[in-house]
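Exercise 7. Given the encoded structure of a 359-residue chain, write a plausible sequence.
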C-alpha cells in the first residue's frame, strides 16, 4: 500500500478551509467579463490565461504590501450586486470541485460600496451567491466579515457580523498591512464581539512579529490567528532537534489556539524563504493546532488540494497527516459543536479512511 497521497486522490478527500479571501479567488475570465460589464479599466490583459499568470507573477514579490496591490483589480470589478453574487457563487462551486466540504470565506464589505451599495446590500449579495453556488454540491460555506486595519470602521463591521450571524456570517476578522496598524486600534470592536458571544479571528504574525500575535491573543481575545507564522520566533530548536518554547508559543500551543497557515501565500509575502523552511513543518511536529489554507487562490494559483500535495512532497506527509490537518480545521470552525462533530465523524473521517484503504 502506498501511503503517499497523490494530487488526484487528495482532490477527492473531504477538506476544510478556514482562511480564504473572496476577492483573492476570482476566476480570471470572470474578472475580464465583469470589467467589460461594469466599465472597469486598467486590467493588464484581457486574455484569461495571461491574466492568471500576471496575478501569480505580481504576487511573487516577497512583499506583503506589493502582494496586496493585486487586489485593486479584483475589488474593482466587485462593486455591483450582480458581480458579488456571481463571484460568491463561483467561489462555492470551485471549492466544492476541489473537495472542500466546509469553508469560511472572508471579505471586507467596506471595499465594495464605491457604486452606492450599502454594507447590508453587499453582505446579502455575497450570502445569496454562496447559497446559490453551494446548492446540491456537498459543501457548506460560511463567511467572515473583515474590517481593514488601516481604516476606522471595525465597530461598524463587527455590528454587521453580529446582525447576520444567524443567516450565514460565521464571524469577524481584521486584515491589511500589519506594520503600524496593531490590532489594539480596534479594541472596542473586539470587546463588543466578546460581549455578544461572537467569534473572530485576527490576521497576525504574517507581516509582523510576536508583538502582533501577543496583542491579538492577550489584548483582543482572538479565537484564531490568521497565519501566525512568526510564532516560530518564540521557539528555539537545538542541534539535536529538540525544541524549547517561549512563554507565548507555549501559551498558543497549550490553549490550542488555531493557526490559519497558508504556505504558498506565506512564501509570496516573505514570511518564509522556502516550503521546506516554512514553520508549518516544526509546528506540526510540536502538535500546535495547525490548519492548512489557501489565502488567495488566484494570486497563489492554488487550492487546498495543491497546498496539501506540496506539503506531502516537501515533508513526506501521509493520509494520517492530512486527516490531522483537516480535523484541526473542522474543530476550529466557527459553527456549532454538533455541526462540527457531524462533519468530522460523518464525512471527513470516513472519506479519508476510504481513500487510505484504496491507496
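Solution.
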Amino acid at each position: 500500500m502506498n501511503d503517499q497521497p497523490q494530487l488526484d486522490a487528495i482532490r477527492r478527500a473531504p477538506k476544510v478551509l478556514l482562511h480564504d479571501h473572496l476577492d483573492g479567488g476570482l476566476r480570471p475570465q470572470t474578472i475580464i467579463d465583469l470589467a467589460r460589464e461594469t466599465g472597469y479599466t486598467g486590467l493588464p490583459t484581457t486574455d484569461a490565461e495571461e491574466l492568471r499568470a500576471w496575478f501569480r507573477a505580481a504576487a511573487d514579490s516577497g512583499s506583503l504590501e506589493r502582494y496586496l496591490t493585486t487586489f485593486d483589480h479584483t475589488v474593482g470589478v466587485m462593486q455591483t450586486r450582480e458581480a458579488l453574487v456571481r463571484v460568491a457563487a463561483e467561489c462555492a462551486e470551485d471549492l466544492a470541485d476541489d473537495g472542500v466540504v466546509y469553508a469560511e470565506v472572508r471579505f471586507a464589505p467596506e471595499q465594495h460600496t464605491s457604486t452606492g451599495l450599502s454594507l447590508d446590500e453587499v453582505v446579502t449579495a455575497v450570502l445569496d451567491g454562496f447559497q446559490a453556488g453551494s446548492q446540491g454540491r456537498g459543501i457548506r460555506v460560511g463567511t467572515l466579515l473583515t474590517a481593514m486595519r488601516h481604516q476606522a470602521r471595525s465597530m461598524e463591521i463587527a455590528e454587521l457580523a453580529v446582525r447576520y450571524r444567524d443567516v450565514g456570517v460565521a464571524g469577524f476578522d481584521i486584515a491589511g498591512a500589519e506594520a503600524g496598524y496593531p490590532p489594539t486600534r480596534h479594541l472596542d470592536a473586539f470587546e463588543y464581539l466578546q460581549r455578544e458571544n461572537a467569534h473572530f479571528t485576527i490576521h497576525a504574525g504574517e507581516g509582523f512579529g510576536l508583538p502582533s500575535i501577543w496583542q491579538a491573543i492577550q489584548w483582543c481575545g482572538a479565537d484564531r490567528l490568521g497565519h501566525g507564522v512568526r510564532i516560530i520566533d518564540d521557539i528555539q530548536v537545538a542541534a539535536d532537534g529538540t525544541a524549547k518554547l517561549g512563554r507565548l508559543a507555549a501559551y498558543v500551543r497549550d490553549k490550542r489556539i488555531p493557526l490559519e497557515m497558508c504556505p504558498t501565500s506565506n512564501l509570496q509575502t516573505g514570511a518564509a524563504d522556502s516550503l521546506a523552511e516554512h514553520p508549518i513543518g516544526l509546528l506540526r511536529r510540536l502538535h500546535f493546532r495547525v490548519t492548512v489554507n489557501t489565502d488567495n487562490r488566484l494570486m497563489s494559483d492554488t487550492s487546498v488540494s495543491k497546498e496539501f500535495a506540496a506539503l506531502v512532497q516537501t515533508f513526506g506527509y501521509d493520509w494520517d497527516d492530512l486527516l490531522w490537518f483537516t480535523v484541526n480545521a473542522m474543530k476550529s470552525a466557527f459553527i456549532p459543536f454538533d455541526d462540527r462533530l457531524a462533519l468530522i465523524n460523518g464525512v471527513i473521517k470516513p472519506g479519508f479512511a476510504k481513500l487510505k484503504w484504496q491507496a
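Remark. The CA atoms of residues 131 and 223 lie 26 Å apart. Students should compare their own answers with the one above.
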